[in-house]
Amino acid sequence: MDTLLTADLAARSANFRRRSSTYVDAIHDLPEKESMAPAQLYSTESGRLFHSGRIVIATVGLPARGKTHTSVALARYLRWLGVKTHIFHLGDYRRAQIGSKDEVPDDYFFVNASTSSVLLRNKILRKCREDILNFLNHENGQIAIYDAVNPLAVGRRALAKEFEKHNVQTLFIESHCTDERIIEDNVRSVKISSPDYKGWQPEDAVQDYLNRINARIPHYETMEESELHYVKMINAGSRVVVNNCSFGYLSQRIVFYLLNLHIKSRQTYFCRAGTTSEEESYKADASLSDEGRDYMVKMSETLLAHREAERQSLIAHGAPESTALKPLTIWTSTRRRTVETSQYLEEKGYRVRQRSQMSQLNPGVCEKMSERKIRQMFPEEVSKHEQDPYHHRYPRAESYHDLAVRLEPIILELEREQNDLLIIAHESVLRVLYGYLMACSATDIPNLSFPRNEIIEIIPASYNNSAKRVHIPDLNPKLVPGSPEGIAMPVAPSGTGTPFSIGSPGTRTPESSSREASGGAVPLWRAAIGQSALQASFDAAKQTQTQNAELSPAQKSLAQNINSSPTSAPSSDVPALNVTTALSPLKETTPVLDITPASPPPKEDGAQQ
Amino acid sequence: MTPSAMPLNEPTSAPREDQPQYRPDLNRAPQGDFMRPSMRTRTRSNSKTNGVGVQVEDTRICVVMVGLPARGKSLIAQKVVRYLAWLSITAKCFNVGSYRRTNTPNPSASFFDVSNKEGERLRMAAAEAAVNDMCKWFRSPNNLIAILDATNSTKARRRWIKDRCDAEGIETLFVESKCDDEELIMSNIKEVKTTSPDYVGQDPEVAAQDFRERIRMYERVYETLDEDEADMTYCKIINVGSQVIINRIQDYLQSRVVYYLMNLHIKPRSIWISRHGESNYNLSGQIGGDADLSSRGQLYAKALPDLVSKSAGDRNLTVWTSTLKRTGQTARYLPYEKLSWKALDELDSGVCDGLTYAEIEKQYPQDFRARDEDKYNYRYLGGESYRDVVIRLEPIIMELERSENILIVTHQAVLRCIYAYFMGSDQERSPWMEVPLHCLIRLTPRAYGTQEERMFADVPAVSTWREKGSKAVHADTPTASAKASPMIKPQSKGEAIA
Q1: B492: pLDDT confidence band, cut at 50, 70 and 90?
Q2: CB contact under 8 A, B259 and A393
Q3: CA within 13 Å, CB half, A138
Q4: ipTM over the 0.85 cut-off
Q5: Which B residues 435-464 touch A at CB under 8 Å?
Q6: Which of A57, A108, A111, A443 is deepest in the core (most CB within 10 A)?
Q7: Region (Disordered): which ranges (chain A) (predicted)?
Q8: Which architecture does CATH list for A3-28+56-260?
Q9: Mutate to test the interface with A, among B33, B38, B44, B50 (most CBs of A within 10 A)
Q10: Cα torsion for A119, A121, A125, A128, to the nearest 10°?
Q11: pLDDT tens for residues B90-111?
């Protein structure tokens, strides 16, 4: 059965907002344990930042103005900050209530609609608002993003007043467009792939869409209500009006984030630093070894070749011969090994910047200790770490959480950066940055694996970024797992592109093994980790390589499922990417909730209905 | 330091076996500046391999203040310069008024009348001189941000500035402070302007009267930033942030400045800072570590609530501590809400963690000297420099600007950095500042500069202060206030020093 029916089923359930029917991705899954957020400044029992109240962020703007893009990006950032956030798309409620497009009353979007349409509209609105309040009042939610058109001043005032009664602040974010080209591009790239237009011809869909917008234009009022809190973004942020917004920590963070958010697509590449002569020592800050320098050359050459191939493929798809890629900028930490790994590209004239915030996770007292020694000396710390590898901090060390807080300014700069970007960093740093870009849950971040023989390419998309791995050929296999055997530093030291995250080598947490047992629902990351964990560390190198190069049948079918699901339609014009969307770890690790079926919906749902 | 204090060639100076081998140039690793102009790309184009694109560090920005007199422009300008300097971004403020003053030191209001041709000519000449100096200043590659502090009240004047900057390849960011709140304006006039150099030696009442007259002159021709200037990058702040309009922000540095401006507020408030109580490491003279408080340190923790309430009265404070035990223990008895921030942890001294200064000098003699030479930039092997600490404190400063009354219990190096931000101390001196233990510092931001007040708890403690080039023994000083130094003036409780 199609998405619409399952959406209908879901909407009638008590827990509808847990899973949106429209864009089933990491952002729209609500993790059960929200306290596990990547960059929370400090934690409280309620899971809320106490120096900031509860906020409803209500979007304002006609369709195809980038409202959903903004909400999704904002939700990703806020969650990463540790703020319990959820998006409520009014469109989902409408589709759930009414069903497919044909049954929407003609005057549904009109201001002077018939009584029955108005009643229908109110019913849908009420359901959505009830869910929002439930989320904020009973589930420790801190920010609810209410994604709707909210076209009229009177409606917005009423909305703010209603939430005010529940002691909730309302912050409006208006996406306003005066540039027709932005709107049309947006319609083409995003809107006609929405479930509303399933089965339509693209041209008809665009036309219908624009007509729908036109029908509403006479009744749209841009925000001028000076007493309300609002941010008005005009033409994708080229002009921003911030009204009455200094009411809290979060509102200021949101505004700063919006200032830096830009929609232009650019590539981000992640790669590891080369190996050093004193691999196991954090404090030594050693220089690259010979193998490390060899890695530097091969990595750089692979990246340049890959970029050239991408340029050629653009030309092959009809771009002019003179097409140039965006300039490439390189960021490294101030640690010696990452700086030196960038030398080859720097000599070729690429711009390199060092950022002290990007230094690796500080291992504290556990530096240079073998896993056995750590277990001997700090048995209590080890058991605490095993319970919460993300937040636990060894004596004098940093936790991943500390690292994420440290990296927060980098994240904003990352959003603002216009050039393509290569980040050469330690694995722990890559984990956190990747965790942000791919909206991973905190439980997964310490286990992400970045073997040295791969460059990770992050491809931005409107709702959900996707990742792609570029293989670096001919590397000395010793380099790939990197570290000498036996360093199972609790926080995965430099070089362990291997399973020794914590716990004894070669064993997996019960959680991950049970997932593996369930077949296709294993993300590639986990699969690679689980498989290679069984190998001795040197063998693991080769194993990891092959695991990533070839997909197992189960993974293939998973990838195909995703490929064929309507939800992945926005990126289906780039076939290679669909396979890799399965890399987002959160998607599969979030438990499937209640009666809402996992995406893609299996046939049985229709039969039940 | 006497030569005898440096046993350079003695065998004892060699690193211990279990220490990583010492490499003298390690602390010269790149410093990872917040922003630093790249000399290379300025002089040599890399367009062949890399195309052309936005290079953040290449941007030079002229922040042009716009607004009627008494709208807090100079206050904003001065804060931005201080903030950027603290982040090691070279910034300078060019005040057109001070150029004009060289010719007309005490002008009357009629000087500012637009129909006064001579006044108009002189004011234009002053603007021209300021812009010329600014362009000259930008030719030095380290200089990144200039602030042109003047009313710049007409579109024509602003267009002229933009054209001048465009020709020099300098980006412009106009910052308008617009205010209709009469009360705010009058309080600003009274507090600041009547002490302005223009009115030296005049009766304050007359001065205020003349100043209001001057504002009226400007009001007649004042044009606010609007649609006609949609091509410009600007940030318009209306009634101290109740509405902000941000137009065409080009890069991260600009957005950073704008974000900083948006976090500023003018509500009166104070910030109290204290080091933790004396720790066991302080007693033994070791640095770093995560030691517990000594018994005297615990006495300080007990004395702190009284000391704070004497100064803060019944204000509701929020306490920020680091994640290390000694700050949490020090704040233990304070009856306020507490937050612990990892970013407030002490400077990480890497391999030297847990050593005494004497041991460091013995084991890492070259490091020890290098640190004395450039303490701000010196990064401990495997640890941090003061510069690194400043970068990690930046979000804390932003949050401090936004907050009201805060009490911070933290560590020596971190406290020095926060203090340097508020007092605008330079990087050369701030790492050497003496901050005694068991002393509470109150900082109150004012329109021009920050007021400081120090209160001592009557609990003795060792002094952990090491003079530049000295041997650094943590001497037990009988009372912390007994010793006078350039950075600290002991005084009776409650007495403010500006």
Answers
A1: very low
A2: no
A3: 6
A4: no
A5: none
A6: A57
A7: 486-520, 540-609
A8: 3-Layer(aba) Sandwich (3.40)
A9: B50
A10: 110
A11: 889 999 988 888 877 777 777 7
